[in-house]
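A quick aside before the break. I want you to see a complete sequence-to-structure record at least once, exactly as it would be stored in a machine-readable document. Don't worry about memorizing anything.
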Amino acid sequence: MNCLADNKNLLYRYRSTKDMGIERIFTHNELYFSSPLQFNDPFDCQIHIHFKEEDETFFKNKAIDIYKKNFCDLTEEQIDKKLDEDIKKQGYKKYSDFFKKEINFNDYVYRHNLCFGICTFSAVCNDILMYSHYSDGHKGFCLVFNKENEFFKDVKKIIYPRDDSYPDISSSDAMNGDTKLDNIFIYKSNRWDYEKEFRIIKNTGSGIYNFPEESLLGVIFGCKMKDEDKLTIMQWAKKRETPLHLFQAGKQEKEYRLDINPLDMKISNLGVSV
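That is the input. The structure line, written in tokens, reads:
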């Protein structure tokens, strides 16, 4: 595990020592899956639903279903005629115009997102910005996971469109609960491309989920992490049946880069044997 940055079978999760529940990551194999509504990017999982010309047939059928329930004494031919007359009377040119006014399609996205929990990972372990943003300015740590473990069988790689366009999701997709709506979870602006993000998506809501102990392989300590915080994690790690590999992030001397080295070469002054 000395060449972490080049290992495509690993995924990483950046954490701060200030995060709630970090001890239980090591002692109870727990990860928190956030609701998409909690994400810091206002565009993430919050896209705009658009209308397509082919949606007209879908909306006409929806309207017919409504009229059949409200006017059960009318024939299908009479319902078609009444529906056309009512749409014109209300000043609408299309069936979709009526639904645009009466239905908040963003509410479909909101209610859809309520049902899911997401845990995010990265394919990179030595990114300066990632430690800055998610590991308390390099004072936190980074978890090392085995991507080949069963826990990651359904992990999704994030797509960063070059033209920064939203995924192709129409109003009919939203109302039908089409699986295409799930694409909102795996598309992000290309400004986030440096994160090389992967996601595990649960359709059972946000909250705490357990991972197999053996899937967590190691921990990388940030280059500004305090010795006492390292010692605390080491003590938690000792309680595990599966040992962890410990690494230290450090600044390179001549470049704006981080080196990741095995910690057993670095901690003689901490008084802890690994």
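Two observations worth writing down. The longest strand covers residues 245-251. Residues 265-274 have pLDDT under 50 and may be disordered. We'll return to this after the break.
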